[in-house]
Amino acid sequence: MPAPKSTPPTQVDPKPRFSLGRIMSAAQQEATGTKTTSYLVTTLLAGGIYASVSFFIIDNVPYNYLLPAWVGLSFAFALSFSPLRYGAEEIIRQLFPDSDYNSHLLIKRLNAISYSSLTLERLTTHFFQEFEVNLNVNEALFLILDRDGNLTTRFHGFDSIPNLEPLEIQELVKATHQRPVTIHHIRPDHLRHKLEASEIKVVVPLTNNESFLGLLILGGKTGKHAYTTKDLKVLEAIAPKVGFAIQNAREYERVSAHNQQLIENLEKTNQQLRNLNDKLKHDDKLKDEFIYVATHELKNPVTAMRGYLSLIQEGRFGEVPEELKNPFNQVLSSNQQLITLLNNLLQIARIEASTLSFTTKPITECDVIDQVIRDLKALAEQKNLTVIHNCANPSVTVMAEKERLREIISNLLSNAIKYSEKGTIEVSHTIEDNQFITHVKDEGVGIPEKDQKMIFTRFFRVEEEAAKGIPGTGLGLFIIKELLEKMEGKIWFDSKPGVGSTFSFSLPLARDYTLKTNQ
Fold first, then answer.
1. Cα(16)–Cα(23) distance, rounded to whole angstroms?
2. Is pLDDT above 60 for 172?
3. How far is CA 345 from CA 107, 219, 287, 334, 475, in A?
4. Are strands 424-432 and 397-400 parallel, antiparallel or unpaired?
5. Which CATH number fits domain 103-257: 3.30.450.40, 3.40.50.800, 3.40.190.10, 3.30.499.10?
6. Fewer CB within 10 A of the terminal residue: the chain, N end or C end?
7. Given this model, what pLDDT does residue 3 score?
8. Quick one: pLDDT at residue 362?
9. Which residues contact residue 68 at a Cβ distance below 8 angstroms, ignoring those fewer than 6 apart?
10. Dihedral (CA of 200, 204, 205, 207) sign
11. What does the domain layout of the chain look like in residue ranges?
12. Contact criterion met (CB below 8 Å) for 276 and 146
C-alpha cells in the first residue's frame, strides 16, 4: 500500500491554532448530560447552603473567630461537594431515566459483547443495538481490514457510506491519533468534507497491540444532539476490546471456514468411498455368480471323468499297463482334488447367496464322529497315525444337520491327518454353558502366530516349509466356520509350531445334560 503524500513545507494550514468555534464546541460537549446537570444542581445547592451559613456566622460569631469559622466552612464545602454531586446525579438519573445513560454499565455490556461474540455479524449487530439504545446513534459503520488489506464493511442506518480508498483510510487513522475524534478535528480538509457529505460525526480507530484493524464510524445523534466528552470516553474505553473481538471473530470465521471445507472434502471422500463400495459389492456379486455358474458347469464333465477313471481302475476296459499306472494314479488324484475344489466353491456360493438351507434336529454327535473315523482309518494308517475318540457322553445330542456336521468333522480330521507325520489324533468333548464342545487335537506341524489371524479366510494356506507340498484348497476351514455359524455354533483353535494344534467347535445342546468323565 503506498504511503500518503505529505503536505509541502511551504503550505500553511488555513485554520488558525486558536479558534473560538473549537472552544465553544468543546464546551458544548461537556455541558450536556446528567453529569453536567448534577454539577449545576450541586453547585446551586451547595452555594445556597454556603451563603446561608456565612450570614449566620457573620451575625452570631465573634469577630475574633470569624476567620477560623470561614476556613472551616470552606473545608466542609470542599469535602461535601463530591458526595452531593454524585447523589444529585443518581437522583436525576432515577427521576429521568431517559435523559442519560450509565457509562459504567454501558462499557460493561459492550465489553461482554466483545468477549462473547464469535462472528463479525453477531459482534457488529449487537454493537449497533447498544449504540441506538444508549447513545441515540442510528447510523454506524465498521470498516475492517484484514492482513492482506481487503476491506470488510458492516453498516447500519446509513443511506450511503463513504467510498474510502486504502490511502484515505490510512490518512484517517493518522488524523485520529489513535483515539476517538469528532469530525471537525479531521485533517486534511478533503477527507473531512468527504465524511461530512455522508453526515459522519465521529471516527473511532480500532487497534490491537498497535496493529490497526479498522475504523468505527458513527453518524449524528437523534434530535441533533452533539456528542459529549462522556460519549467519546466510552468509545475510547471500548475501542481496544472491540479490536480484540474483531481479531478473534476473524480467526473464528477463518477456522470455521477451514473446518467447513474439511467437512465438505470428507463428505466428498465418503461419497466416493460409498460409490466404490457399491461397485465392489456389485463386482463381488458378479464374481460369485460367475464362480457358481462356472463350477456348476464344470462339475458335470469332471464328475464324468471321475466315472470313467473309476471304470478304468476297476479294469472294465482291460488291465492298465504297468508303465501307465503311476500317471494314471496322478490323474485320478488330480481329478479328486478338482472335484473337491468344485464342491467347496459351490458350497461357498450357496452359503453367500443364502440358498443353502439348514434343517437342524437332535443329532448324536459321537456316532457321527465314530463313523467319520472309520471312513478315514485307512488314510490315518498310511501315515502310522492313531485316531482316538474319548466320548464319555455317547447319548448327548446336539442341534445340527447331520450331513453338515459330518462334513465339519471329516474336514477337521482330514486336516489333522494331512498335517501330522507322527503321534496321535485325539477327539474329546466338554459341556459348557449349554454348548457341546468338541476338541480335535493333533501333534502336527502347527500354525505360526503370524498366520493364525488369517486361518479362517478363503483360500488362505500356511506358507511354512513344513506345510508346503501338502495338497489343499484353503477353503475347508472357511466353510466349516460358515456352516457352524449357520447352526449357531462357533469354532476356534490353539496352535504352536512344531507342537501341534487343537481345533475346537461348539454346537447347542438339544437338551440339558450332566457331564460324565472317563474313569
1. 13
2. yes
3. 81, 85, 12, 16, 8
4. unpaired
5. 3.30.450.40
6. C
7. 38
8. 93
9. none
10. negative
11. 21-95, 103-257, 361-508
12. no
Q: CA 7, CA 188: separation in Å to the nearest integer?
A: 9
On whether the CB atoms of residues 467 and 445 are closer than 8 A, the answer is: yes
Grid coordinates representing 276? 466404490
> What predicted TM-score, i.e. pTM, was given to this entire model?
0.43
Q: What is the CATH number of domain 361-508?
A: 3.30.565.10
Q: Rounded to an integer, what distance in angstroms lies between the CA atom of residue 320 and that of residue 314? A: 9
Nearest residue to 351 (alpha-carbon basis) of 407, 414, 275, 300: 407
pLDDT given at position 296: 55
**Predicted local confidence at residue 202, as pLDDT:** 92
| CA distance linking residue 415 with residue 389, whole number of Å | 16
- Chain centroid offset of residue 406 CA: 51
Report in angstroms the alpha-carbon separations of 69 from 51, 58, 80. Answer: 13, 10, 16
Are the C-beta atoms of residues 439 and 504 closer than 8 Å to each other?
yes
Give the DSSP H or E segment for 356: none
The neighbour count for residue 246, using CB atoms within 10 Å, is: 26
Q: What is the pLDDT of residues 311-367, one digit of tens each?
A: 888 888 888 888 888 888 888 878 777 777 777 776 766 666 665 667 889 999 999
Cα–Cα distances (Å) from 110 to 119, 125, 129, 203, 251, in that order, read: 15, 12, 10, 18, 20
CA distance linking residue 144 with residue 211, whole number of Å: 12
- Would the pLDDT of 466 be above 50? no
- Type of residue numbered 320: V
Q: Is the pLDDT of residue 470 over 90?
A: no
Pairing of strands 386-389, 424-432: parallel
For the chain, report the end-to-end CA distance as a whole number of angstroms.
100
pLDDT tens profile 93-122? 566 555 567 788 888 888 888 888 888 888
Query: What average pLDDT does the segment 427-438 reach?
Result: 93
pLDDT at 186 over 90: no
Question: Kind of pairing, strands 424-432 and 151-156?
Answer: unpaired
